[in-house]
Amino acid sequence: MRARLRAFGSNRGGPTTAAARAARVGLTPGSVSRMIDRLDAAGCVRRRPDPDDRRKVLIEPTPEGLKRVADYYAGLTDRTHDVLATFDEDRLRSLPTFVEAARDDAVAEVGRVRSDVRPRRDAGRPSHPGSGE
Predict the structure, then answer these.
(1) Are 21 and 10 in contact (CB under 8 A)?
(2) Reduced to 3 states, what is the DSSP secondary structure of residue 56?
(3) Nearest to 4 by CA among 48, 37, 30, 29
(4) Distance (Å, rounded) from C-alpha 33 to C-alpha 25?
(5) For residue 24, what pLDDT is reported?
(6) Which of 2, 22, 43, 128 is the most buried (most CB within 10 A)?
(7) What is the pLDDT of residue 8?
(8) Residue 69 burial (CB count, 10 A)
(9) CA distance between the termini of the chain
(10) pTM above the 0.70 mark?
């Protein structure tokens, strides 16, 4: 369950559709739909109608789901606070720049890895005479 909660991601941006969540975490819509079913059955998320588009369903974490995530990360959160308490003002001011650069690098690396693993549409196909290939 913990892995599903982590993979589902945080509640930043509020409730979202399953498709938006799938795009955000880099999974297929089918995978996310099955994950939502399991999280819903465990009481960690709930589905509710989108007030702006009644064809859509929004997924949002429940208080219990948020508590489970907070409990899971409590040790790491405490250790991080302990480390940050030792930083002076200059070190603290430099952290956002580092975090943003690390995030941008991670996003770029994920994009690179995904493009390397996706099979090309024409992979393994012989070129056809007269096709310009």
Answers:
(1) no
(2) strand
(3) 37
(4) 12
(5) 83
(6) 22
(7) 54
(8) 18
(9) 49
(10) no
The single residue listed with the structure tokens 């599903």 is 4
Write down the residue that tokens 């208080």 correspond to.
63
Cα separation, 65 vs 77, whole angstroms? 17
State both tokens at 45.
């998320």
> Each residue of 73-84: b (16+ CB within 10 Å) or e?
eeeeeeeeeeee
What pLDDT score was predicted for residue 124?
54
CA distances from 12 to 31, 45, 72, 92 (A): 20, 14, 18, 23
Q: Tokens 């770029």 identify what position?
A: 108
Give 29-76 pLDDT, tens digit per residue.
899 999 999 999 999 999 999 999 989 999 999 999 999 999 999 999
Distance separating alpha carbons of residues 110 and 117, to the nearest angstrom: 11
The one-letter amino acid code at 3 reads A
- What token pair was written down for 91? 């070190």
CA pair distance 1, 9, nearest whole angstrom: 13
**What is the residue type of 85?**
A
Integer Cα distance of 102 and 105 in angstroms = 5
Say how many CA atoms lie within 13 Å of 30 toward its Cβ. 0
